[in-house]
Amino acid sequence: MVIGTLSVESFRNLAPARLRFHPRLNLLVGKNGQGKTNVLESLALVSGRASFRTADLADVVREGENDATVTVGLAGEPAGELAARIGKGRREHFWNGRKVSRVEASRRLPLVALTSADLGRLGGPPADRRRALDRVAVAHEPSLAAEHRRYEKARADRVALLGAPGRPDRDALAAYEELLSSAGAAIAASRRRWAGPLGRRIEENARLLGLPYREISLRLVSELPAEAPLPLLADALRAGLRLREESERRAGRALFGPHRDDLLLFSGALPLAARASSGEARALVLAWALAERSLLAEACGRLPVFAFDDFDSEWDPDVLARFARALPDDGQVFLTSARERAARELPLPVGAVWRVEAGRLAATGTSPDRAAFLPAPARWPGERSDDVLAS
Amino acid sequence: MTSLPALARLVAALERLPGIGPKSARRIAHFLLTAPPDASEGLSAAIFEARERTRSCSVCHALTEQDPCAFCVDPARDGALLAVVEEPFDVEVLERTREFRGRYHVLGGALAPLRGIGPDDLHVASLLERAASGVAEVVLATNPNVEGEATALYLARRLKPLGVRVTRIAFGLPVGAAIEFADEVTLGRSLSGRREV
Question: Do B113 and A179 touch (CB under 8 A)?
């Protein structure tokens, strides 16, 4: 499965166009502010991921328009058209014209994105690390997506109930405790299942990138029991919620549950957030993204698209060269760079180079020198005959 | 639009209706203004008449033109079996199945603390009264979202001490649909709610 074509309408500064991408590498070059990151963001959104630039989806819709649409033609298996219609506070996904869930969109087009927003993941807010682990868990166990939604809504409802004037209804509180403990236990159990495998993949990829750390593990820091079956996790959650009822009412927020979990990366007994240099910490984030890529590949049966924004600006040249060589022979990669010459010097796989200027993309020729430029096929498998290259 | 304030008010009123967006509201408003007068007059009269004649049943809170409603007075219906739904509209939906032969109880919504809706804002007290007088089973048919689930859990806690059997409607695959088109959540629920054949 690769992204064969991309069409966007009313999406940030991108000009309406139908672009035909290279099946392996697409290197987007251009000055800052021209729209390189917007292309990656459009791919992330159509794949069901959150935007890595804004929490308000309305921000991606061009001013004066109600909706933005992003449509990708997927080539290979499964071939078809995946689309997202994005408006104020909502996003709808369609597979071959049929409305589908965000989870299904992410399974049709698995994608791993690495952007400047991820650079501080090791020492930044725990929510970023939790989300990165949860993406892996949801890819393997899609019904978890509903548990996350259930948990967040029930958590907000319970806080509102505790904060309402007068004493809250005991039975109503118990109803929300029940919802929170069942959804929260499912989330907690999934994190206990997936922290280990993700840590081991990070170790493999850290080695590949030449990092000096060994015995890397991802440790879950949680107020819930470390090893416990689902019913015991639910019991512990229920008991903890009751215990903190009064303090949560005073605080006006939920003080207990898997939304407070943290994940820390260790090398043996060394906490890497504190011990790794800033360059190493960034390289570890790259190893983490590659680990996510391989675990998503196992969940979906195909390599996810890898989207790496500003890929050569913050990274050690040796790490980048190792990354370039380590890119497997299959799987599609999108890279953006504001430094075309430096990017072209890396031993990247064969692919296409696109120049991005004022929201327009123009194919400019070959990727770096490992092989000659390979044009995209005239028609992708499964593509309709009226498809045209409009860029 | 500002030069036509009456039309703007009509569009704004239509936009407040459920399921009507700005484009549909404009389309309907223009239709009503350009169609023969009896179209808009007929609509206006139908709304007025429905508002005048329809009320809430004093027993089950479903919409009715006679109080108590036809469901509550029908001797062929099983008075020991009660289905609890969120809105009057849900009664119509369940009736269309022709599967349910008990009576109904409309809550008038679901628990929603974020919007300030608690048990006292719903028809819970009358449900408990009915359940305590000759009802053997209460089927909780609230929606399968967090608000509906919380309401079902809450009602179960209030009803069980009364000695009635409390059940929840099943969730799963739509009949006639292919498994490959089911989303993962629905399919997951179908599997966890499987039964022996």
Answer: no
The secondary structure of A152-180 as a DSSP string is: HHHHHHHHHHHHSSSPPPHHHHHHHHHHH
d(C-alpha A253, C-alpha B53), whole Å: 46
pTM of the predicted model as reported, rounded to 2 decimal places: 0.86
Q: Cβ of A160 and B114 within 8 Å?
A: yes
Q: What is the pLDDT of residue A367?
A: 52
Please state the ipTM of this predicted complex: 0.83
Query: Which residues of chain A fall short of a pLDDT of 50?
Result: 368-378, 380-391
Break chain B into its structural domains and give their ranges: 5-53, 63-168
Per-domain boundaries in chain A: 123-278
Instruction: Please check whether residue A379 is in contact with residue A7, taking contact to mean a CB–CB distance below 8 angstroms.
Output: no
The CATH class of B63-168 is alpha beta
Interface test mutation site (partner A, options B24, B121, B140, B149, max chain A beta carbons within 10 A):
B149
CATH superfamily of B5-53: RecR Domain 1 (1.10.8.420)
Q: What is the CATH architecture assignment of A123-278?
A: Up-down Bundle (1.20)
CA A285 to mean position of chain CA atoms: 13
